[in-house]
Amino acid sequence: MKPDLHYSPEGSSITIIRRDRRLFARARLLLPIKFMREDGRNGSGKTVNISPNGVQFVTGPGLKRGEPLVIYIHDIGRLSGQIIRSNDGRIAMVFDINEHKRDRLADQLTWLLNKDRLGLTDDRKTKRRESDEDLQVTCEDGRTIECEISDISLVGVALTTRSRRPMVGESVTVGNKPGKVTRYVEKGFAVEFQRGTGA
């Protein structure tokens, strides 16, 4: 197996991990957690970062490497796994989940990273490729157009609109997140988010 390759867009709150030709996002999200140990004891803490493979969080002392854990992460839900690193209350845990749930978790992280910047509502039934969210885009000349999201990812968004589309290469603001129009898609256009603005 080839080693993982880690890289981060400049100024971003994510680290992309390439593993076996797949991309996983390690999102720096501070979310409250609760957990239950194998002996039934409970605890709480806060996440440092999360990926579809696992989570790093801080809590009180006592958790040990190799210990199984059930964790409840705010805005994400219940996950189980095993502690792979414990250092003075800083814990790294790997999730015990199948590929389907891992993909769903990747979509949840994508949503959490983008929803505040784009001013989206938090609809748990919304699918990644079927967002159907109304969104306002501001063009370089100050013109605003109403759009709907057809696809969203960590690095950009595809939009449909009934209005006149901005030019390819034009700088736009999607919600309150700056980006650049990279291409036209059916009934709309695609925007790549500007690096260095955070998520």
Short description:
With 199 residues, the protein is mostly beta strands. 10% of the residues lie in helices and 49% in strands.
For this entry, give a set of tags:
49% strand, 2 domains, 199 residues, six-stranded antiparallel β-barrel, six-stranded antiparallel barrel, Thrombin, subunit H, 15 strands
Question: Any overview of this molecule?
Answer:
The protein has one helix at 99-118, and strands at 5-7, 14-19, 22-27, 32-37, 42-50, 54-59, 68-73, 77-87, 90-95, 134-138, 144-152, 156-161, 171-174, 177-185, 188-193. By secondary structure, the chain is mainly beta. It folds into 2 domains: 31-97, predicted glycosyltransferase like domains (Thrombin, subunit H), CATH 2.40.10.220; 120-193, Beta Barrel (Thrombin, subunit H). The longest helix has 20 residues, at 99-118. The protein is elongated, with a radius of gyration of 19 Å.
- The secondary structure category is mainly beta
Indicate the overall shape: elongated
At the third CATH level, what is the topology name of the largest domain?
Thrombin, subunit H
Architecture of the largest domain, according to CATH? Beta Barrel
List the total number of helices. Answer: 1
Using only CA atoms, what is the Rg?
Answer: 19 Å
Distance N terminus to C terminus?
Answer: 31 Å
**Series of secondary-structure elements, N-terminal to C-terminal:** EEEEEEEEEHEEEEEE
**Multimeric state of these chains?**
single chain
Strand order of the largest sheet: 4-5-6-9-8-7
What number of structural domains do the residues give?
2
Number of strands: 15
| Percentage of residues assigned to helices | 10-25%
**So what's the CATH class of the largest domain?**
Mainly Beta
pLDDT averaged over residues: 78
